[in-house]
Write a structure and sequence with these properties.
Nucleotide_cyclase; transmembrane; mainly alpha; Alpha-Beta Plaits; about 75% helix; binds guanosine-5'-triphosphate
Length: about 325
């Protein structure tokens, strides 16, 4: 692979990485917005005297810390070292912490249920990215945190627990999480298949593009591509006058070769001629089969004199190229 091809591939890879990083920052902005929506509910709870100003402030600090850390990791590119640079599972799991903190200070079980409802939102972020297994892991973390909250409430504030309501909420929460896990897993497997199909389609398109431009027998450009190149050169010439040359090459007495040695031997000669001429070309030259035993060479930025020199270089007896 040439240096310029390597540079092109490196360039397009870094473009793709930049695009993905921008997408991650946009997703982070959306996630921060949903933290702030929850914060507005936290503020309402404070206004209604359900929690203290300190707890509402702590929710805000936790939210800023979580989002600030994720922003820092993406902004500095440190996230690229992780197995999942989007940190989807981690972001989903930690997003529950500020809400759980507020829930720990709420007296009314119904009010805690509101935050449980909000906790479902981060699960939606994973629907397009996580596999069923990853969903299950996130769900287990959610339940571990939820269990710790209840353990704390049972130990320190048992008077705020209403066991019937808590069981109802926990079961409903578990069922909704299970449903999201199944739907999310299904969607992400569909996306995986779609990505694979796109990849195969891209490869097939690449092959078709090649077949459309290449002569099947000799592997050099075909007449269609040659006309395209000539038209491009004419356009370039009209914008920026310079010079380009076109050499039409013909194998002498080729019919006699076919008649004497057979069609297969003729084919082998056409292939050998194509190989031989291609070897001596510059990267900008374009060589192709015009038809039958005729070939055409397009030499950009080459005046007639240069083309004559090249034509002499290419003019060889058949024995010399076989
Ligand atoms: N083996 C082979 N022969 C081909 C192919 N395409 C065209 N030909 C043959 O090329 C020959 C061209 O014959 P002519 O146009 O008379 O060319 P020539 O015999 O080289 O005569 P001059 O050009 O005047 O020297 C014909 O016999 C075609 O059958 C091909 O793909 N493979």
């Amino acid at each position: 692979m040439s240096d310029s091809e390597n540079a092109q591939i490196t360039g397009s890879t870094s473009d793709a990485v930049n695009r993905e990083q921008k997408l991650r920052l946009r997703r982070l902005a959306m996630s921060f917005a949903s933290y702030m929506v929850t914060f507005s509910i936290v503020v309402y709870c404070w206004v209604q005297g359900m929690i203290s100003l300190r707890v509402a402030g702590e929710f805000l600090v936790f939210s800023l810390l979580i989002n600030g850390t994720v922003w820092y990791l993406i902004h500095t590119g440190r996230n690229l070292k992780f197995r999942d640079p989007s940190m989807t599972s981690v972001q989903m799991i930690v997003s529950l912490l500020p809400a759980l903190w507020v829930m720990a200070f709420l007296d009314a079980g119904q009010a805690r249920a509101v935050f449980l409802l909000i906790a479902i939102v981060p699960m939606l972020y994973g629907i397009l990215a996580l596999t069923t297994r990853q969903f299950v892991v996130v769900g287990l973390w959610f339940f571990a945190f939820y269990g710790v909250l209840h353990l704390g409430l049972w130990l320190y504030r048992p008077e705020v627990l209403n066991s019937e309501l808590e069981i109802l909420q926990t079961v409903a929460f578990a069922l909704v999480m299970a449903e999201i896990t199944v739907i999310g897993g299904f969607i992400s497997s569909l996306r995986g298949k779609l990505r694979q199909r796109n990849l195969e389609l891209g490869e097939a398109m690449e092959q078709i593009r090649e077949l459309v431009n290449v002569d099947a027998l000799t592997g050099v450009y075909n007449r269609r591509r040659l006309f395209e190149v000539i038209s491009e050169e004419c356009n370039r010439y009209s914008r920026m006058p310079g010079s380009f040359s076109i050499c039409l090459m013909d194998i002498d007495h080729f019919k006699a070769v076919n008649d004497t040695y057979g069609h297969q031997a003729g084919d082998a000669i056409l292939q050998a001629v194509a190989r031989s001429v291609t070897e001596g070309l510059r990267a900008i030259d374009c060589f192709g089969r015009y038809g039958g035993e005729e070939f055409l060479l397009v030499l950009p930025q080459t005046p007639l004199e240069g083309a004559r020199i090249r034509r002499c270089m290419q003019r060889k007896p058949m024995a010399a190229i076989m």
